[in-house]
Each structure stands twice: as structure tokens, then as C-alpha cells.
Write a structure and sequence with these properties.
The protein is built from 3 helices and 14 strands. It is mostly beta strands. It has one domain: Porin (Beta Barrel), CATH 2.40.160.40. The protein has a 14-stranded antiparallel beta barrel.
Length: 318
């Protein structure tokens, strides 16, 4: 118990030491803004409250410590497509596998693209705009504590200009009460400035709950609550829940509130609510999420995940 308490203190000290840096930078713009867009279909369907629940390929985006919880003997592969406002679209390909009983790793390729921009200033071809990022992540666990690290390399193109950069993510997970309760912290997009613009540093901290119940353990319940502090915006409160029936059908509901208000946040409470659903058949899983974006329109996310190899426990893998 003393060991777990020490880990909790260390985790909060890590979060606390980074928070003043975020506050000092204030609200503004950042480089490589595509890195801060919430993409995971599962996580966004739960309002983004996922940092303490990370246990699948979405860990590459929310908390790399969750890579240590990938099901053993299974190769996980997922492809995600995001339909968003202004014809901006994301494609994402992820691969991950447990590397041992307490270790896991993953790689991810992210591509954001949009229609060409007309070049009104010069008699030239329209400007091409796209972003590309590669991520390599690793996580391991010791007893009731997990830690993970991501390395990111990215390229942004605007017309004929290319920008290159790199970043690091760090994540922690601590488990209590037979692993039903978890504490998670993610420090994302740490790295050097790009052309005098800061990267979109993001700090997340929250709690999670997981349990299975019913006579035959056919019901699974997951819930999360977290605070999300972006470098270039205000603090967000995020909450969400997920329900599974027989590890075959899943439903999610989430809520996100920006503290202090925002021009991008509607006063209509229904426009702060996200939801999602999943269907799993054999080794395939299809996830969907709907996330409103107030005046900017709505986003739809689809993810197809394939698993190769025998799962130890289907319910515990969610």
C-alpha cells in the first residue's frame, strides 16, 4: 500500500510540475495543430475521458502506458477515418502487440488532408495542404503501475513549404481495488518549437472505473472522468461511460465542458454531448462515434479493428 501511495504522489507531482508551464504559455496558437485533434473513435465517443482507461491502440493517442495492457498473443490492427467540417479528413493506421506479460508496443501513421487552396496571389497551381505523422510507442507495467512513452515525427506541408518536427508523449497508470479503479496521467506533444511556434502541449489527468457483472459476467461497464489542459486553450472537464453486452455490442456516451466558456462551445448542452457504438464479431470490431462541434459542424468517426490470435479474456480486454 505504501508503494502504491508513493506512485500516486509521484504521478500527481509530474502533472503538477507541467501544469504551470502550460498556464504560463496561455491561450493562443500552436504548431502542428493536427496533433492535438482528438481522433480515437472509442475515446471521443466517451467525451474524451480516456486517459485512465487506456488499454488498446487508442493508447497511442491518449496515454502510452495503456500499451502495456494490450491483450497477450494478439496482433491488433486498426484503421480510422474521420469526417469533419470544412472537408478536413483524417486517416489513421495503427498496429500494436503485447511483447510479453507486462510489455506492449505499437506504431501509428496519421495523415490529415484537405482540398487544395486557391492561390490568388500568384499565377501558380493551387496550394496543397497536408500533415503526416509517425508514432512509435512502448508501455510496461510493474504490479499495479504502468508507464509508457511515445516518439513522434511529423511533417506539415503548405504549398511548397515543409515543416518537420518531433515530439514525445509520456503516460502513467495506477490501479486500485483489484484494478477496478485507475488513475491516469498523460503529458502529450512535448518537444522543441517549430519556426518559433510551440507544439500543442496537452496534459490530461483523470480517474477510471471498469467492472464486469451479471450471472455469467455478460455485462461490462467502463466510466471515466478527467481534466484536459491544452497549451493553447482553456481547461476542459470531460466525462464518459461505456457499456458492453457479452463483449459483442457496445454503447458510449460522453460530455465535455470547457471551463470559462469558448466561442467554439455552444450554449446548447446537447452540442457538448458525444455518443458512440461498437459491434464485435469474431476477430473484427467496428466502432462509430458522433462528436458535435457547435458552429463548425459535426464530426463522424469510424474505426475498424482486427485482432489476430486468441484473446485471454474478451471482457477484460475492454
Amino acid at each position: 500500500m505504501r508503494k502504491v501511495s508513493l506512485i500516486v504522489v509521484m504521478t500527481f507531482l509530474t502533472l503538477g510540475s507541467a501544469a504551470p508551464y502550460v498556464a504560463a504559455r496561455g491561450v493562443g496558437t500552436s504548431a502542428a495543430d493536427f496533433l492535438k485533434a482528438p481522433r480515437s473513435t472509442r475515446a471521443t465517443g466517451m467525451g474524451g475521458a480516456y486517459v485512465a482507461l487506456a488499454d488498446d491502440l487508442s493508447s497511442l493517442e491518449w496515454n502510452p502506458a495503456g500499451l502495456s495492457l494490450l491483450p497477450s498473443n494478439v496482433l491488433n490492427a486498426s484503421f480510422e477515418h474521420l469526417f469533419s467540417f470544412s472537408d478536413v479528413e483524417y486517416e489513421e493506421l495503427s498496429l500494436g502487440q503485447a511483447l510479453g506479460d507486462n510489455y506492449g508496443g505499437g506504431v501509428q501513421l496519421l495523415y490529415r488532408h484537405m482540398p487544395d487552396i486557391d492561390n490568388d496571389l500568384e499565377d501558380e497551381q493551387p496550394l496543397k495542404v497536408w500533415d503526416l505523422a509517425g508514432v512509435v510507442g512502448y508501455g510496461f507495467q510493474l504490479s499495479n503501475f504502468s508507464v509508457g512513452l511515445n516518439l513522434k515525427f511529423f511533417q506539415t506541408r503548405l504549398g511548397t513549404e515543409d515543416l518537420f518536427g518531433e515530439a514525445v508523449d509520456m503516460g502513467f497508470l495506477v490501479f486500485f481495488m483489484d484494478r477496478k479503479i485507475s488513475l491516469g496521467v498523460g503529458i502529450l506533444n512535448l518537444g522543441p518549437d517549430v519556426k518559433n511556434d510551440s507544439l500543442p502541449l496537452n496534459i490530461r489527468g483523470g480517474f477510471g472505473y471498469k467492472d464486469v457483472f451479471g450471472e455469467n459476467k455478460e455485462h461490462g461497464l467502463v466510466a471515466g472522468l478527467e481534466l484536459n489542459q491544452p497549451l493553447d486553450n482553456k481547461l476542459n472537464l470531460e466525462a464518459g461511460a461505456e457499456y458492453w453486452y457479452r463483449a459483442m455490442f457496445g454503447a458510449r456516451l460522453g460530455y465535455k465542458q470547457q471551463m470559462g466558456g469558448s466561442d467554439l462551445q455552444s450554449d446548447n448542452i446537447t452540442e457538448r454531448i458525444s455518443f458512440g457504438a461498437s459491434v464485435r464479431w469474431s476477430d473484427l470490431q467496428l466502432d462509430y462515434a458522433f462528436v458535435p462541434f457547435a458552429d463548425l459542424g459535426n464530426t463522424h468517426r469510424l474505426t475498424l479493428t482486427a485482432r489476430y490470435g486468441p484473446l485471454k479474456d474478451e471482457l477484460e480486454s475492454k
